[in-house]
Design brief:
single chain, 253 residues, mainly alpha, globular
Length: 253
């Protein structure tokens, strides 16, 4: 079954590359705007062998890990407060949804005004990109704890912090993992938005640098790297973690 899926994906990718080569061959766009697959592959190869892409990746992951950790921490705290306090949820809850709807790139001018063209400005954008979606998921997790769990625990004399720690936290774990997965995805997008307007280093900065010098082969190569990393990390790390948690909690077969 898995082998068939792999074959389908490889064939689909081959078809996309073939269509790409066809469009290039019939000169629909100028070569400087639409490079061939071979030229993009050469840009990928040279970028990694010369170390430029490796350095950019290292800087981007440094920004990402710092911002994602803070986003998960802050989002969890905010989500717990909103989930446990009805008054806080009724007052701040709607604004949390409004903040979540703001595209990450909108925060970039504010980050630059506050912190200048520094790496901390990029981390700030990453934090904002992941915090709100994490908070929404944690709040939903607490709101969706089965009421009979709470009633059963109270019947056995559990209340207050003990009820929260022993009943609500374990019941919220599946939603928490979904929040972490979404926080990663939103933070990764926010990272690229922040680095695009930064002074580097990072993949986003390298993308803008290549665009400024009309190196479309490098632009497309970096776009491919960004997409592949997003897909690989999601499928090999966060998706598996989420599925394992769901299975353990009996939510999926």
């Amino acid at each position: 079954m898995k082998f068939n899926i792999v074959v389908k994906r490889v064939l689909f990718l081959a078809a996309i590359i073939g269509l790409w080569q066809l469009v290039f061959s019939i000169n629909v766009f100028a070569d400087v705007v639409f490079p061939s697959p071979g030229k993009v592959w050469t840009a990928l190869y040279e970028g990694f062998t010369q170390g430029d892409f490796v350095k950019a990746l290292g800087a981007s992951f440094k920004h990402l890990f710092a911002g994602l950790f803070m986003a998960i921490l802050l989002g969890t705290i905010v989500g717990v407060v909103l989930g446990k306090s009805k008054q806080a949820d009724e007052t701040a809850g709607m604004y949390l949804i409004a903040l979540q709807s703001i595209p990450s790139i909108v925060w970039v001018p504010l980050a630059i005004m506050l912190f200048g063209f520094t790496e901390f400005a990029v981390v700030f954008v990453v934090v904002l990109g992941g915090t709100f979606v994490m908070a929404l998921n944690v709040r939903s997790a607490i709101h969706n704890v089965p009421p009979h769990f709470v009633r059963a625990a109270r019947t056995m004399g559990t209340s207050g912090f003990g009820l929260f720690y022993r009943v609500e936290v374990p019941a919220s774990i599946p939603y928490f993992m979904s929040g972490v997965r979404l926080a990663w995805a939103f933070s990764w997008r926010a990272l690229m938005a922040g680095e695009l307007l930064s002074n580097g280093p990072g993949l986003g900065y390298s993308l803008r640098y290549a665009q400024d010098y009309a190196r479309m082969d490098q632009v497309i190569a970096i776009i491919i790297i960004i997409g592949l990393i997003g897909a690989i990390v999601d499928q090999l790390v966060f998706s598996k973690l989420e599925k394992n948690v769901m299975k353990r909690w009996g939510l999926v077969k």
